[in-house]
Write a sequence for this structure.
């Protein structure tokens, strides 16, 4: 093994990895190495909200695909992942929404540890935040992460929200507050109208201010190194050369819900039969890659009149506004949303809407041909479960990914009911007066037509989770079972997916995971910069 050694080696500079690196390096006596398989986050488009869809299928995207999906007419579903420092926090739609209280209480039940309950993890959310709306019991200020209101405030979004209210849904001015349900505007990870990723908040300030943290980019980690049962480092490939580094304290895997299970399996940790079939010696027989969950979304698109839709807005005048942190080019597109229960007896909402003043179809890969709006349900409490497996025993091979979406009756019924909710919103004033024609909606409101349309047009919201779950692969301290010195800290440890966009919860997992590495059992209320 190389003589180069660090206290902690973190694999992955995505959202959680950036948080862990920033927090661990607060201790000047600790040395941290961060390995990122993608490149640096220097492309100017990264921080330009209006063009984030243009990063899909670019050099900044790992560009994954599912296998043929049995519940979705055999289609292969596009699964983008950020291929740069910041990971998906550098490529996503910047929505900062935590989830439902029930999500975290369920995690605590599954993990058998009350420290994952909502009351116990709320301080971790607050500790990260520098919330534009000010501090209260639900929100923090003075933290590293800018959480802001939209600078775009597109008026067509207000039209959609008013239509939702007229359809019988409550306004909710704070979707991260005392209650989740209702409709309102999203808080965003932006500062002055520009993307502000966890890399901007936690990693870059640490790299600038401290000498005890290092970052290596374009470094694909190929395996975890062991001495006996203890993880003692990793091997990574940089510029065609295999390099070994040692972790004196722990190896932290923060490579995301797809690559974290891949790295564990390449290192002999995973389903024994699958590893043997790949010619990999089994170190720990664990259900790595199982329990995969994501949010499936079905977007209704309508062509609208007027010039307030986000269509053809890349003009010199709007670029001038953008330079001042204002105007339509600061929009993240889905500027608002809402949460709904489609039937009685649910512990929390099963459907989420995103309200966008621009059409969204073909999995977001086709530029809209006309001004319009898009909104509709995403299943946020799916009972369908998929898996991630190795395609080959090579670290650069794209994994086998199966969503298995819509393969349960509960999910199909939520989908049908959610689409009906969207059709009801579209029929309300003042939205119905703005609609010129439908662009992509079901043939009728019958169960059969709705389900056929859903199968043919659905996409994910790019929220993969749960492939290294607490309670099965890792324990409540995020330690990989059956070995020592190895933790997973990212969205893959969620035992169940949050009933909301997953980015905020992933940042919280990074915060709590860093404390677990330090031996700290609960969040302090002090707001500190990650580079303080």
């Amino acid at each position: 093994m190389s003589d180069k050694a660090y206290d902690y080696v973190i694999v992955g500079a995505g959202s959680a990895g950036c948080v862990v690196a920033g927090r661990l390096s607060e201790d000047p006596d600790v040395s941290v190495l961060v390995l990122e398989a993608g490149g640096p986050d220097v492309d100017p488009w990264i921080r330009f909200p209006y063009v984030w869809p243009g990063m899909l299928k670019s050099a900044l995207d790992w560009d994954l695909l599912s296998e043929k999906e049995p519940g979705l007419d055999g289609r292969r579903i596009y699964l983008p992942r950020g291929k740069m420092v910041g990971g998906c926090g550098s490529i996503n739609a910047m929505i900062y929404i935590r989830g439902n209280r029930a999500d975290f209480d369920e995690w605590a039940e599954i993990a058998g540890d009350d420290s994952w309950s909502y009351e116990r993890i709320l301080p971790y959310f607050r500790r990260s935040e520098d919330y534009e709306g000010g501090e209260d019991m639900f929100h923090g200020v003075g933290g590293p992460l800018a959480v802001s209101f939209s600078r775009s405030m597109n008026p067509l979004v207000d039209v959609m929200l008013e239509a939702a209210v007229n359809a019988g849904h409550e306004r909710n001015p704070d979707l991260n507050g005392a209650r989740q349900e209702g409709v309102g505007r999203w808080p965003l990870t932006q500062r002055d109208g520009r993307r502000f990723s966890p890399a901007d908040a936690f990693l870059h300030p640490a790299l600038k201010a401290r000498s005890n943290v290092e970052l290596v980019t374009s470094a694909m980690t190929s395996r975890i190194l062991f001495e006996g049962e203890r993880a003692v480092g990793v091997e990574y490939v940089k510029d065609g050369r295999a390099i070994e580094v040692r972790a004196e304290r722990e190896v932290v895997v923060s490579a995301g819900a797809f690559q974290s299970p891949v790295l564990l399996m390449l290192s002999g940790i995973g389903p024994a039969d699958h590893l043997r079939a790949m010619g990999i010696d089994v170190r720990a027989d664990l259900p790595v890659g199982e329990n995969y969950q994501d949010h499936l979304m079905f977007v209704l698109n309508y062509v609208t009149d007027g010039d307030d839709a986000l269509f053809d807005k890349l003009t010199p005048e709007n670029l001038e506004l953008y330079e001042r942190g204002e105007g339509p080019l600061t929009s993240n597109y889905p500027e608002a949303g809402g949460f709904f229960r489609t039937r009685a007896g649910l512990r929390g909402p099963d459907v989420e809407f995103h309200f966008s003043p621009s059409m969204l179809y073909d999995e977001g890969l086709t530029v809209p041909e006309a001004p319009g709006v898009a909104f509709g349900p995403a299943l946020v409490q799916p009972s369908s479960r998929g898996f991630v497996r190795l395609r080959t025993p090579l670290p650069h091979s794209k994994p086998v990914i199966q969503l298995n979406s819509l393969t349960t009756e509960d999910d199909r019924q939520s989908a049908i009911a959610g689409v009906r909710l969207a059709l009801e919103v579209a029929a309300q004033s003042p939205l119905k007066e703005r609609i010129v024609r439908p662009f992509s909606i079901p043939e009728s409101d019958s169960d059969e037509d709705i389900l056929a349309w859903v199968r043919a047009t659905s996409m994910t919201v790019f929220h993969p989770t749960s492939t290294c779950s607490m309670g099965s692969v890792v324990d409540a301290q995020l330690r990989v079972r059956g070995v020592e010195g190895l933790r997973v800290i990212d969205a893959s440890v969620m035992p169940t997916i949050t009933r909301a966009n997953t980015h905020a919860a992933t940042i919280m997992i990074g915060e709590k995971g860093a404390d677990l590495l330090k031996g700290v059992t609960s969040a302090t209320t002090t707001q500190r910069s990650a580079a303080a």
